[in-house]
Automatic annotation (TrEMBL):
Lineage, opening ranks: Archaea, Methanobacteriati, Methanobacteriota, Stenosarchaea group, Halobacteria
Protein name, UniProt field: Putative serine protein kinase, PrkA
InterPro entries referenced in this protein's UniProt entry, alphabetically: Prk_AAA, PrkA_C
PrkA AAA domain boundaries: 27-421
One Pfam family this sequence matches: PrkA
GO molecular function, one term: protein kinase activity
Organism: Haloferax larsenii
Keywords, ordered alphabetically: Kinase, Transferase
Length: 690
């Protein structure tokens, strides 16, 4: 901790500044009318407010993925990035969810549907739902998201049988104050609001007062000879309404308890037995508005493991979604206004999918698939987030460790390609964006093929990031206990392989296939480790830059049909085709594609020049790889490969120089020694035998 110590006075001021200034103030109905005329969005319904919430925290269009990212999910500004979501598929799901909410805000139909988040365990659907609720709470604390409700006051002055404890009663359903106006007069106000509204939707409100408020309004209008102004001036106060899940106010989470003993009153409310003796059984004042739908009114209802509920119990959701009402036992219908979100895992969905008796429920559901991440580098970011959010021991994570763990996860989730020319690993790389111009791989076709062959959708099955993250954590603790200050990919592979059988969510019939995938990942890691070792043995930054500049000089001359100056003689000469092809062949670019590659690199250099950026071959991955591989071919004849396999020479100057080069690539010194031992022998073997 840095800076001055926070005193109680500092903390108190910080808290006071964080809450709305009018949180504790009571206003008049006349004040509310003036406010809502000035800012019609105050009277938004739940879908409209939630839709605006997603836009309020910012958006960004990802051109590569072709999807809108909502910053509350891609950056999480409220929690300093602690709950960031990664992966194209996940952001597509979030985008789809928001689009359904926005359609509901316009009254296009989804406002009468349950938004059902469907996905495998650990796909992030529950966490996204949780994050949406946290942001909704924050949004209603801000001026942009403010909303109000009302409370009845001085009821005992007029209603003689009113319990003195109920002299002041807040709107049981936290309704918007506009519902106090009869519909005809309310429509006159709403018409004026919509004339002043700058939004893609219109304000609508045709709700009836909740039964208790209807009772109070009727009795008070009778007392004041139907003078509505007298009623609201003498008995109504307007108060700020802030969403709070802890207070069960405008945000509610419903979790099924006993599957065989489900009670609809958990959703719709029940009789308030403490008031029965005071008011009598049929009196609306004796009803307890404590059901989950009541608590969620004006905000978000979140139903966990929704399809685990009994079919009969789900009927309440039909009225809540389609009719936007609830019907408590022995009580009148109650209008509700909320975004109803449900979550379910794959087994429950498959079980209910073919049930003809679930047709009505399914018809009132908008399914949003929440698949696993299918880009392994994005999957690796999930593990990095896990490590950032934890008290990780002082341990160094070696290059490729998290990416290769992510690759294993992705292999278990994607469908085997039909094409004989594409392996599963190549497909995973294509999904990850690792495509060269020479690759004959159509990613869109691969995705379409995967969707058509998968049971429900690609990425809706496989090993979860949660399982892999747990194994990474175990590998970290194991390394710590062994006194190792680094975590390598080899250690992660060991833990993954040893614990596949012990994970309850992995079907036994998948184990052999998953072990085979793990071997594929080991081979991929070995190739990358060999590349790193070659890089360390032959790396020369100045030489790569010089060769890169030479390559570009000759490419530009080739494209312009010009000559270049010979480095030794100073005479003009034609572009060195032999040199150009020596570089390009390191990327397996065939003769008939060389012009395309040269034009691509030329365009890249020209674009950087227009941006005022100087040429640097290190900034172009393909060119850098080609130059490094050519440098290897040029320098490998001068390397003492016997030192790679000789333990006696572990600490000599030559080997230390190699370790230093690996450290420059991101390895720890211990990890560098391990990768030299693992991959160095393979490099030496291939070169000595060659």
């Amino acid at each position: 901790m840095t800076g001055e110590i926070e005193t109680l006075a500092d903390l108190s001021k910080h808290y006071k500044d964080s809450v709305p200034s009018d949180l504790r103030e009571a206003k008049s109905f006349e004040w509310y009318l003036e406010e809502v005329y000035d800012d019609p969005k105050i009277a938004r319904n739940a879908h409209q407010r939630v839709a605006d919430m997603f836009d309020f925290y910012g958006t960004r269009y990802d051109e590569d993925a072709g999807v809108v990212e909502y910053l509350m999910a891609s950056e999480d500004p409220l929690h300093d990035g602690e709950n960031v979501f990664y992966g194209r598929e996940v952001h597509e799901s979030i985008h789809e969810f928001v689009n359904k909410v926005k359609s509901g805000a316009r009254g296009l139909g989804p406002e009468k549907r349950i938004k059902l988040l469907l996905g495998p365990v650990g796909s992030g659907k529950s966490h996204f739902d949780w994050l949406s609720r946290r942001y909704f709470e924050d949004y209603t604390m801000r001026d942009e998201g403010r909303m109000y409700t009302f409370r009845w006051t001085n009821l005992g002055d007029v209603i003689r049988d009113q319990d003195p404890a109920d002299d002041v009663v807040q709107s049981p359903m936290n309704q918007d104050p506009l519902v106090l106006l009869p519909q005809e007069q309310r429509d006159m106000v709403i018409e004026q609001l919509n004339e002043n509204l700058d939004a893609p939707y219109t304000i609508r409100n045709d709700q009836a007062l909740d039964p208790a408020s209807e009772f109070y309004m009727d009795r008070l209008l009778g007392h004041y000879d139907d003078d509505l102004e007298e009623v609201v001036e003498n008995h109504i106060e307007i108060i700020r309404l802030v969403a709070s899940e802890n207070k069960r106010q405008c945000v509610e989470t419903f979790e099924p308890k006993d599957k065989k003993n489900q009670d609809e009153t958990e959703l719709t409310g029940d009789v308030n037995y403490s008031k029965l003796a005071v008011y009598g059984e049929s009196d609306p004042r004796a009803f307890d508005y404590s059901g989950a739908f009541c608590n969620a009114n004006r905000g978000i209802f979140s139903g966990e493991e929704l399809l685990k509920l009994q079919r009969e119990f789900l009927y309440d959701f039909l009225h809540a979604s389609q009719e936007q009402t609830i019907k408590p036992k022995n009580n009148p219908r109650i209008d509700i206004d909320q975004v109803i979100v449900g979550r379910t895992n794959m087994p429950e969905y498959r079980e209910k999918k073919g049930d003809e008796k679930m047709e009505a429920f399914n018809d009132r559901t908008k399914r949003i698939d929440f698949p696993y991440v299918l880009e392994y580098e994005q999957e690796a970011e999930i593990y990095r987030k896990m490590l950032r959010n934890a008290d990780v021991p002082d341990i160094h994570v070696e290059p490729h460790t998290l990416e290769m763990s992510g690759l294993f996860g992705v292999l278990t989730r994607i469908v085997e390609p039909d094409s004989d020319g594409i392996t599963l690993v190549q497909k995973a790389k294509a999904y990850n964006g690792e495509l060269d111009d020479g690759d004959d791989i159509d990613v869109r076709k691969l995705r379409e093929e995967g969707e058509s062959k998968a049971d429900i959708g690609e990425g809706m099955d496989g090993v979860s990031a949660r399982f892999i993250g747990d194994e990474i954590a175990e590998a970290i603790m194991d390394s710590t206990h062994r006194g190792r200050s680094y975590l390598s990919a080899l250690s992660s592979f060991t833990h993954l392989g040893e614990n596949l059988e012990g994970h309850g969510s992995i079907p036994e019939e998948n184990l052999e296939r998953y072990h085979r995938y793990l071997e594929m990942v080991r081979e991929e890691y070995k190739e990358r480790a060999i590349e790193d070792v070659r890089h360390a043995l032959a790396y020369d930054l100045d030489e790569i830059r010089r060769q890169g500049e030479k390559y570009m000089d000759h490419v530009m001359a080739y494209i312009d049909d010009a000559t270049v100056e010979d480095e030794l003689t100073g005479r003009d000469q034609d572009p060195d085709e032999k040199f150009l092809r020596a570089v390009e062949e390191k990327l397996n670019i065939p003769e008939d594609r060389k012009d395309d590659f040269r034009q691509e690199v030329s365009n890249w250099v020209s674009r950087r020049a227009r941006e005022g950026t100087s040429f640097d071959p290190q900034q172009n991955d393909r060119l850098r790889r080609a130059l490094e591989r050519k440098l290897w071919e040029d320098k490998k004849h001068n390397i003492n490969f016997s030192a790679l396999v000789s333990a006696n020479e572990l600490d000599d100057d030559e080997r230390n120089a190699w370790i230093d080069a690996l450290v420059d690539q991101g390895y720890s010194r211990e990890g560098a020694r391990e990768v030299l031992e693992f991959a160095g022998a393979e490099v030496a073997k291939s070169e000595l035998e060659g």
